[in-house]
């Protein structure tokens, strides 16, 4: 296999960057995985709000007789196409996960911490796909649907951790702020996760189940919506406290900017949430709110990981042309 030369098209060189990776290209693949996993989460919500949850009513096949959409008298072609499209996105996410794994395996010097994080991606994506089969077989039980979303949240966290660790060393974590501020960051991250779980409960109780056959949680929608809103106030309050603490202690600029970005995303998400509530939860705003939830989670991960460092990334080992040719 011939590697691209320095004079090759930049796009081609980037596509081969998992084969002769650097810390920079490793981070690029990890960040791309964050993006595609977030996109997969949003497409999953699109399946639900369009009522396409059982557009492909078997798994792993789309219909009992075919792996791809075919005419079916009981299923809308649009619903089938939406659900099948979401399944195809899984292969895109898997491709980026494999690219991250190959990059971690071929990075010189090889780093065990990156390998472990990189392995989480293909393994997690396969687990997510198998869970998707359970979602279909359970006829969109709200508990299985909610766990499907939370698995995606876990995958995004793993991708972000890989992105962050690829740009730093393997020293023990050293805080960049006062220990109480870092503890506040950990509490904030936990609160954001609880907020996402509460959002899953609201989703499992309210409309847009994904299909008329799907069940709903036997809870009072007004009560769970108010609980969700109360947790929002806690998260926003903790974020403001973190932002204030970082500014008064003259903490690193990167940490202050990350906290400010999180605060801004939360406010925008709050506007979307209240708007969809007062407009009787229109499908488009539900999808936008799901995107906002994912962005809040990513922004929270960024804010918390900006509070510590593990030193500089190891200097790359550049193999000779002969060694590279022998490797491929």
Descriptive terms for the model:
2 domains, disordered C terminus, 2 strands, disordered N terminus, two-stranded antiparallel ribbon, 10 helices, 328 residues, mainly alpha
Short synopsis of the structure:
The protein is mainly alpha-helical and 328 residues long. Helices cover 69% and strands 1% of the residues. A two-stranded antiparallel ribbon has the order 1-2.
Fold blueprint:
Elements: H1 10-15, H2 23-49, H3 77-106, H4 112-137, H5 142-166, E1 174-175, H6 179-205, H7 221-248, H8 253-278, H9 283-305, E2 308-309, H10 321-327
Antiparallel strand pairs: 1-2
Structure, explained:
- With 328 residues, the chain is mainly alpha-helical.
- The chain has two domains: 9-170, no CATH class; 173-309, no CATH class.
- 69% of the residues lie in helices and 1% in strands.
- The protein has ten helices and two strands.
- The protein has helices at residues 10-15, 23-49, 77-106, 112-137, 142-166, 179-205, 221-248, 253-278, 283-305, 321-327; strands spanning 174-175, 308-309.
- The protein has a two-stranded antiparallel ribbon.
> Any idea how many domains?
2
Share of residues in helices: 55-70%
Q: Which structural class matches the secondary elements?
A: mainly alpha
Report the uncertain regions.
1-8, 323-328
Instruction: Output the strand order for the largest sheet.
Output: 1-2
Shape: flat
The H/E string reads HHHHHEHHHHEH
Average of per-residue pLDDT values: 87
Oligomer: single chain
Number of strands: 2
Q: Please, how many helices?
A: 10
First-last Cα distance: 6 Å
What share of the residues does DSSP label as strand, in percent?
Answer: under 5%
The major beta sheet can be summarized as: 2 strands, antiparallel
**Rg of Cα set:** 22 Å
